[in-house]
């Protein structure tokens, strides 16, 4: 699961950089307003998962949610099929 969390955070960082480029060069503030808060929340979930102990009753549900969210990057070459929920 650690690999999935690292993968997801890396993709979010890539997306943040891409959106910043779009906003800076093409004036895409609407895109930023709609997507950046969502990316921040997904990153927060990933960080919360990393901070949880294995005995935390929320960890299984959060792990499932992260697997579902990671599916949006399934076409990325580093995505691993065993991460599918």
TrEMBL record:
Fetch the Pfam families from UniProt: DUF6221 (PF19730)
The family database entries (InterPro entries) matched by this protein are listed as:
DUF6221
User: Which domain of life does the UniProt lineage start with?
Assistant: Bacteria
Which protein are we looking at?
DUF6221 family protein
User: Top-down, what is the taxonomic lineage of the species of origin?
Assistant: Bacteria, Bacillati, Actinomycetota, Actinomycetes, Kitasatosporales
């Amino acid at each position: 699961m650690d690999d999935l969390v690292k993968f997801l955070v890396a993709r979010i960082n890539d997306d943040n950089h891409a959106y910043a480029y779009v906003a800076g060069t093409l004036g895409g503030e609407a895109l930023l307003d709609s997507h950046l808060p969502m990316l921040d929340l997904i990153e927060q979930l990933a960080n919360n998962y990393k901070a949880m102990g294995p005995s935390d009753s929320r960890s299984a549900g959060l792990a499932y949610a992260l697997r579902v969210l990671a599916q949006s990057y399934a076409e990325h070459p580093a995505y691993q099929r065993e991460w599918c929920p």
